Amino acid sequence: MTIMPSNKADVTASNLREVLSHYLTGVTIVTVTKPDGTPYGLTVNSFNSVSLAPPLILWSLDNKNSNLGLFENTAGFAINIMAADQIDLCRRFAGKDSDRFVGVDWTFGTSGHPLITHALAHIECRPWQTYAGGDHTIFVGEVIHAQHLSDRPAAAFFKGQLGQYES
Predict the structure, then answer these.
(1) HEC profile for 41-69?
(2) What H or E segment, with its residue span, contains residue 94?
(3) How far from 80 is each of 9, 54, 55, 70, 114, CA to CA, in Å?
(4) Mind listing the pLDDT tens digit of every residue in the chain (167 residues)?
């Protein structure tokens, strides 16, 4: 007996969100320098590696995000891999506050983009490719500098909650 795949998708957005919530993901803050020189960043858990040669990573952003154009038109960006003891910072950068860097310890990296001090690691990238991905835009970056900083427990996102992962 041959089973033929159905051409009809039976997955709803809410169903897919619920199923994917059971996949543990790390938490990052993606940062960029605005044209006026001020830092901007947002919390992202849609991050992963793509290739080691060349060194590529990717992350995605909702097309409804008001700062989408900032990332589409930048010469680079940085990925800050966050620690569990930085969950409050992850929440801040996920919120609506427009001045997210006030009181945050950070510095400009070698690429000129903000690096959050005491993150677990920093990855600085230049744009490689951008793809349409349904209701998101997928950003692929070529890694130009990467630095591991700490072995503290990682921030994690699971079942809609920020928490920590310990190895």
Answers:
(1) EEEECCEEEEEECCEEEEEEEECCCCCHH
(2) helix 87-94
(3) 36, 20, 16, 18, 9
(4) 666 666 666 888 788 778 777 667 889 999 999 999 999 999 999 999 999 999 999 999 999 999 999 999 999 999 999 999 999 999 999 988 778 999 999 999 999 999 999 999 999 999 999 999 999 999 999 999 999 999 999 998 878 777 765 55
Q: Residue 18: in which H helix or E strand, if any?
A: helix 13-20
Surface-to-core class of residue 68, CB atoms within 10 Å of its CB (0-12 exposed, 13-18 middle, 19+ buried): middle
Query: Residue 77 — φ and ψ, nearest 5°?
Result: -160, 170
Copy the structure tokens of residue 117.
């001090």
Distance CA 41, CA 32 (A): 6
In the three-class reduction of DSSP (H, G, I as helix; E, B as strand; rest coil), residue 89 is classed as helix
Cα gap 155→164, rounded to integer Å = 5
Domains of the chain listed by start with CATH number: 26-154 (2.30.110.10)
* Cβ atoms 94, 61 nearer than 8 A: no
Q: Residue 49: how many CB atoms within 10 A of its CB?
A: 11
Which tokens go with 125?
């990238």
**Measuring CA to CA, which residue among 127, 117, 126, 167 is closest to residue 147?**
117
3-class secondary-structure state, position 161: strand
